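anyone else get weird line breaks when pasting these?? whatever heres mine. first is seq + C-alpha cells for prot A
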Amino acid sequence: MRLLPPILMAASGMLLLSSCGAGAHAGKGTASLLNETEKHRLYAAALAASDSPLDSQVFKGACQSIGIFDKTGQPNDNYMVFVTRHVDWGTSPEAEDFRRQINTKEKAEAYLHEHLR
C-alpha cells in the first residue's frame, strides 16, 4: 500500500499533462512483448526506484517499455487506462508479494535492470 500514494500522484500529474495536449500515441516497442503482470511489475518497480517518478529517467524508460509513454517521454493515450488497472493490480496478493521482493530502492533498481528490454 505504500506505493498507492505515488501511483495516484503520478496519475494525477499525467492526467494534467494529457489534458494540456502532452499525450501522444506510442510507437511499436517492447510493450507488445510483455504480459500484463510484467508491465505492472515494471511500473511498480519504477515507482519504487524513483524518489520523484515524473522527473526520473528510469521511470520514463520503464513507461516507454511498457507502452504508456511515447518516445519523447510523455504519457500517451494508454497511460490512464493502464494506471487505472495498476491501482486494481496493486491491491492483489500478487502485488503485495512483489512489493516485498522490491522493498528497497536498490532491489527495485536491480529488478528494472534485469527486466527492462
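and prot B, same format (seq, then C-alpha cells)
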Amino acid sequence: MDWGVACFFLFSASLVLGGLFLKHRQNQLSHLERMAAIEKGISPASLDERPQRVYFRRGLLWLIPGIGLTMFLWFVPGAFNTAWNAVGVLMTCIGLAYLLYCFLERRRRSIS
C-alpha cells in the first residue's frame, strides 16, 4: 500500500473521530444546560429551537459546491466524469433539501 493513501485514510479517520467527539461534547453541554434550566424552573422547550440560519447556511454550503463541481465536470472529458458528476448532483440535491426545509419550516412557524 502506498504511504500517501495510508496517510490520507488516517487523516480522514482522525477528522471523523474528532468531529464525533466534538458533537458528543456539544450534546453533553446541551444536556447540562437543559438540566440547569429545569432546576431553575425555566421551560426547556425554548432550548429545542434551532436557528433557521443554520439550515440556510448548511443548504448553501452544499448547494454552491455541488453546482460548481457539476458545472466544472460538465466540460472536463474523462472516464471519471460520470461518478464525479453524480457526486456533484448529490451535493446539489442535499443543498436543495436543506433550503426547502428551511423555507417550509419558516412558513410553518409564521403560520402558527
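btw re prot B: The two ends are 58 Å apart (CA to CA). Residues 1-48 form one domain.
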